[in-house]
Amino acid sequence: MLTSETKRRIDACRNVLVGKLPQPSNQVELITLALIYKFMDDLDEEAVKMGRKRSFFTGELAKYRWRNLLPQTVSADERVTLFSEGVEALGHAKKAAHLPGLFREIFRNAFLKFRDGRILTMFLTEVNGFAY
Length: 132
Fold this sequence. Notes:
The protein is mostly helical. Helix content is 56%, strand content 0%.
């Protein structure tokens, strides 16, 4: 069940995307991918806090961690590159071979359908507000 806060955040994400992704299905797809992407990094962070190792963003995928997307030292263009490459890498059979098949399948053939760094920054900032 959606709480009013979750619904508000999803609506805010859709409002950011509407100019770049006019089709609601594309908006929902990107929101879903971003939430799962963030969730994977959040799980890795929890594992580290508990003295375990990361299981998702390791090896070649380490540079694509969610937390690497948001610092202000990352330019909007770099953010677009990191996020789009990260989404594609998470679905790549070899680069993401260590991931459970479900996660690889979710990201298989996924890609960022726009290249506007300002919009992506606003969108990722909204998604970053979700907590699990």
